[in-house]
Amino acid sequence: MTQSGRFITLEGGEGAGKSTNLSFVRDYLQSRGISVVTTREPGGTPMAERIRALLLAGDEQEPLDDLAELLLVFAARAQHLAQVIRPALARGEWVISDRFTDATFAYQGSARGIAPERIAMLEQFVQQGLTPDLTLWLDMPVVHAAERLATRGKERDRFERERNDFFERVRLGYRARAEQAPERIVPVDAAQPLEQVQRDIAVLLEQQLTSWN
User: Fold this and answer.
1) DSSP string spanning 141-198?
2) Would you list which residues are annotated within the binding site?
3) Closest Cα partner for 130 from 86, 178, 177?
4) pLDDT beneath 70, residues of the chain
5) pLDDT for position 2
6) What is the pTM of this model?
7) Which of 16, 126, 150, 167 has the CB geometry, 3.0–4.6 Å to 138, for a possible disulfide?
8) Residues at the annotated binding site for ATP?
């Protein structure tokens, strides 16, 4: 299968504004006549969304093992790739996803402590070389993200209930990924006012569109 569309991901910890800015990226690209599919991980298909529910809910009677968590993430990803991402790219559409495998290295790798070599093996097995063309890493201090989460007024899921030191490790994991792939992963200061964040994203997208064209 030949990939003809583009694959853009938004990454970041809890409260970084991924969902809001995903909508901004979608609208920005559509305004330039680009056909866009938006999705998220874990999830993106009915089956993968059921796996997502398992991952987010947890079970006090039977805590989810870290390795089981990792395998569930990749099970959802395999379904997502087969049903949504690869078909859309083959049609020439652009896929924008709220998280992808960088999140796995940050959450299950850096924060949970699973060796990156194990994650990389699953990445190759499941993705067969498919990686995003561009990743916008919405970065902000953990304390600011925690303040945002506190204002949401909804019950927190299993990940959102983690302590700040967990999210510090997540942030370090994202930073390590950005250092390893600076040509793909672009940090965005998500602690700024939303209008400035989106101005920065627009500049980055315009630069990338010019480069790809």
Assistant:
1) -HHHHHHHHHTS-S---TTTTS-HHHHHHHHHHHHHHHHH-TTTEEEEETTS-HHHHH
2) 12-19
3) 86
4) 1-3, 153
5) 41
6) 0.93
7) 16
8) 12-19
